[in-house]
Amino acid sequence: MIRKFRSRAIILGCTLALSGLAACKEEFLEVDPQGQPRAEDFFVTPEHAIQSVNAIYGNLREWKVATFANLALTNIASDNADKGSDPGDASFMNDFDNFTFTPTQFILADYWAGQYQGINLTNQAITNIPNITMGQQLQERLIAEAKFLRAYHYFNLVRAFGDVPLLTRPPVEPEELNPVRTPKEQVYQQIITDLTDAAAVLPVSYDALNVGRATRGAALSMLAKVQLYQRNWQEVLNLTNQVMGLGYALTPNYYDVFRLSGENNMESVFEVQALTVPGNCGASNLQWAEVQGVRGQFGWGFATPSEDLVNAYEEGDERLDATILFRGETTPEGDVINPNAPNPRYNQKAYVPSFVTRDCGYAKDQNMRILRYAEVLLMHAEAANELGMTQDALDALNQVRERAGLDPIETASQDELRNLIWQERRVELALEGDRFFDLVRQGRAAQVLQALGKQFTEGVNEVYPIPQTQIDLSGGVLTQNPGY
């Protein structure tokens, strides 16, 4: 069952340092300490193929992929969240709140390393699974899953850094051990190719034992999102139309989307799976919710919702109370949020009730939502509006608004509707990791962030600096982004 990752899978964890060397080690998820296969004996059996792909999913839960680096670059850098926690705890996170980071900031190196570790795992699977004698249907599906996940990691990298080294197989030749940066246009083309390939193979759904694997809907939705960033509006419209015909639907109650009972429900397109595994806390390692939980009560209190986000909600928007935990409030599950908590607000999407097991720490059962059907509708609305299809845009937008308890928008000009859709993306997807990149692609990052007093420099901070450690390890082969 992929949700539990109990397949005794060896992770071939060669973390690509992009330094002339691949620093390789063997790590394990719930494995016996004796009798493990050596790397050279791997990729032989169908079980090895399954284990290699499970390891890619497992990497999505790793610290460098899911937690501090992810929250810093996506939420804290935006207008939706502040650093939070105690002032002296992880004060380096203020660099992302204020845009005072430099290329030596280790969080940047963490983000880079986490994504490339995932890419290296995908490349191993994509390269080696075709050589395994096994059923063709399973073989093709596993390769398609790996391509989807490779595209996901490259999308994270290209949005954050612009041009990045493009690696589509494990390094073989000496020059491949120290690659140069690839123009972002080529990286985007590889992402599109991978997602197109994946969508042609992946199933619409899985049986109960495999819930959580990438589906056709996930590949098509991610491809639509990539095309959204390329402003290829007709492609976005075509892709979202396909997804809208696959049987997804909005969860009637927005609050339920983010509860444990709402995981992998009718609105879910793709989620990082998490579960407490009693007796093996090393496998229960997704800390996305824990680091954002109420400080001193549930978690560490980082990436707290900003006052600006609170003020962004319309009166009567049910998503406000479902997104933000306020000091002193009582949750629907009966937890009283500490009125003396150090921060006034916390991310309610990361909240897990106190009665849920803490055998391996707080909120290790909370999935991290990556793609939801609500975003598909909003992408469809944005593309339709840009193509002059006003009524289609309004129909999609209003599905999201009406679920939130808001009145539908009856009419609007193209410019007005564009701003309404952007606003809807902000409040619907708040604290889910897209706001900073949305502001950049919309061309509004400087305007919005400078108005809040952030030291955002237009023409520079739309991308992050290449980690200095990687430039040094490459001997200068990797070049720095302008302005850093």
Helix content: 40-55%
**Beta-sheet strand percentage?**
5-15%
Question: Are there runs of 5+ residues with pLDDT below 50, and where?
Answer: 1-35
Number of helices: 17
Order of helices and strands: EEHHHEHHHHHHEEHHEEEHHHHHH
Class derived from helix and strand content? mainly alpha
Commentary on this structure:
With 484 residues, the chain is mainly alpha-helical. 41% of the residues lie in helices and 8% in strands. The protein has 17 helices and 8 strands. A two-stranded antiparallel sheet has the order 1-2. Strands 3-5 form a two-stranded antiparallel sheet. It has a two-stranded antiparallel sheet with strand order 4-8. β1 and β2 (22-28) form a beta hairpin. The longest helix has 26 residues, at 136-161. The protein is globular, with a radius of gyration of 22 Å. It starts with 9 loop residues before the first strand and ends in an 11-residue tail after the last helix.
Q: What would a concise description of this structure say?
A:
The protein has about 475 residues and is mainly alpha-helical. It is built from 17 helices and eight strands. A hairpin with a 5-residue loop joins strand 1 and strand 2.
